[in-house]
Design goal:
This protein is mainly α and about 100 residues long. About 55% of the residues lie in helices and about 5% in strands.
């Protein structure tokens, strides 16, 4: 087994902690907020391997935060707009701007 992680078979240094994964997923969202892009460009932009970026992007797609459009790459998903509406409603109820 060597240096491999016993549960996943992957090397320990390639595994993300929960906080690291959240931070990197937010980096992916911030990058895509600038403009849609393909995986290779996205991975370079956020400083991740293509494999790690692919996993994070697909997790965000599954939650509706990103949309995968084949050759056009990733773009923001509909869930982002839903969260914006929820934010506006919460602020209106609390009297915030």
């Amino acid at each position: 087994m060597g240096d491999e992680h016993p549960d996943t078979g992957s090397e320990p240094e390639t595994r993300l902690t929960g906080a690291q994964a959240v931070g990197r997923a937010l980096d992916v969202l911030d990058a895509i907020a600038e403009r849609p892009m393909l995986l290779a460009e996205l991975a370079t932009r956020v400083g991740l391997s293509s494999t790690t970026c692919y996993r994070l992007a697909n997790a965000l797609v599954a939650r509706g935060l990103l949309s995968a459009a084949g050759r056009r790459g990733y773009s923001l998903g509909n869930r982002i707009a839903e969260l914006g509406v929820a934010l506006r409603e919460q602020r209106e109820k609390s009297g915030q701007d």
